[in-house]
Amino acid sequence: MMLDAPIPLSSRYSYHTIFSDICKTRFNHLATRMCSTFTIFQAIALALVSGGSGSYLESALLVPLRFLLLYLSSLLVIVTRKNYLHVQYRGYSNLWKLVFGQLFCVRFVVYEVIHFACSFVVSLAYSGLLGSEGAGSSAVFKQCYMSYVWVLIPTIYTLQHCLFDLDRLSFSFDTHFQPPQRYISAGWRRIIVKCAIMTLSVTFVSPFFFALAVSRWWIGLVSNLRLALLSFVVFINLEFINVAFNANMSIGCLHKGKPISSLSSTPIETLVTGLSSHKPFTKLTAFQELSYRATSSDSSLRLPIYHTRYRNTHIWPVILRECLVTIQNTNESVTGYLKSLENLKLQDRSNKRTKNFYENDKEKLFGNQVAEEPAAFSSSQLRFPGSPPVTSHEAQNRRITLKDDDVLIRKKFQSNDRRQFPFGIKSPLGAEHAYDEPIITHETTLLKLAGMLLRTVRNYINLFFFPSAISSQQDQPQVSIIEAWCISKRRQAEKLVPQPVCHAECIISLMGLLINAIEEDPKGGVVSSVGEVLKCLERSVGALGRFADWSPESNRKTDDEDEDMPDVVSILYDLSVSAFLEIVLKYNILLDELYLDEDVVKLSKWVLDMCRN
């Protein structure tokens, strides 16, 4: 049944417009205050350290020049990062496709040029201390110095930046706000360790490069130490700006301690425009805010959802629809991929044991093909379809507790750390924005044309070796033998669910609203939606559970590593189990008076029996 759309609102109050203004403010704060502070401090410290080699007056006069050089380096990095900012996984199912896709693209060339410019500019700022004039000023040293600055340093940094997809802003679905200062201060140790590792990598590679460039393997201990120190300084500058960019641009759904939609005169209607947005960053932030409202200890944040304004009484059905559609899209993506594996006869042993069970349509539980025999659903066994074996104690621990001040899922479900901090809005709300494009700069026609040509060539290669990369948009994607042989479960999960945080926030939002509504609005529309939500979660348990129980042949030798780093689908599966359990426990008495799908009833009895045990 199609739900009515909310009454159209002026674009002046769209979530996308307000969020774009806030992003610009955060970007400006990074480009002015934070970068300026870092470069001024560095220029002054450099003047003090290099004062011994000349007059202090000369060093003081060089401070403005060094500041401009270092500040230019920072601007080059943050503007480039902003142009390639994204929040979705790029979707490479294995390591070979990742290397091919990340290195054979215009983005890699652009970053190589930008990092070369930054390396050159930073080396100029440090020329008085670590320049090529030292170490005897030999011609060989100058050539090695140029090799470091022009080739080795930018190439090493570009390789790690692209291969690890550090353009992607990653979020944790249990964090809605954290100041950038806290993010940066907590990451200083990681920054230093990472830069030290990259410096050692350059030092290890440099003899081979020198042998090709200047026909010498060794240029002396002092010269190598100077070059290593130079590379460490350049890496520190690049890495700090990247970390500061992440800290400022991943602040989240709060602005000055309040949800972003509160800047509008119709906050919930504005929030709905964000939930239905086609811009991934805007959509993710809107679901973050919905989760924050649903789980906050301040009930006033939920009242506008319960009691909507005149002629907008259908706001909750639209919110419910957006959440269920997001969850169902994940279910269909995972189910379609598992069907493609069945066509190649690559199911794991648990799927093979259920062959006869699949042939009997009447025995299908939870609306999906499951990975265990019917006996696995007895109340004496603490395991349901697709889940790895667990003990009674572990099963009872799979519960989500709503905190007083925030929603904090168990640390097991945490992904990468994301930090937030609010800043003021300077641009007017009525301004038009296109947030799917860069905020300040745009790609040139030449870059777009080069990117199109590279994508065409890459698609032809993928069509031969990896047909699923081309047919992934079809109803049933195809998987080649080559892909199946070198597949990575964790990377395949990222390909199937490019925005897992949105799915997680949907689950948390629905759970929080249902649990709180039973006391805050017991006769409203939220409570009456419990059956529909449970049905969606039940289907999600079945679909995601099969993937969680699947173990590809290429991963069975690295099971220990997979346990340490679970894939996103397995994390969403555990979260779905926890949310279903919490809702059933909260609505245990009311469920007897509701008509529920047969599969939902079976799973409800299972989780209740699990709790009793």
Automatic annotation (TrEMBL):
Question: One GO CC term of this entry?
Answer: spindle pole body
Q: Does the keyword Iron apply?
A: no
Question: Per its UniProt record, what InterPro entries does this chain match?
Answer: Nucleoporin_prot_Ndc1/Nup
GO biological process: any one?
mRNA transport
Localization per Swiss-Prot or TrEMBL = Nucleus membrane; Nucleus, Nuclear pore complex
Q: In its keyword annotation, does this UniProt entry include Zinc?
A: no
Q: Name one Pfam family in it.
A: Ndc1_Nup
* Record keywords: Membrane, mRNA transport, Nuclear pore complex, Nucleus, Protein transport, Translocation, Transmembrane, Transmembrane helix, Transport
The record's GO molecular-function terms, alphabetically, read: spindle pole body-nuclear membrane anchor activity
**Where mainly located?**
nucleus
Coiled-coil region(s): none
Transmembrane regions listed in the UniProt entry: 30-49, 61-79, 100-125, 145-164, 191-219
Segments of this protein annotated with the region Disordered: 378-397
Membrane topology term:
Multi-pass membrane protein
| Residues in the signal sequence | none
What protein family does this chain belong to? Belongs to the NDC1 family.
UniProt protein name: Nucleoporin NDC1
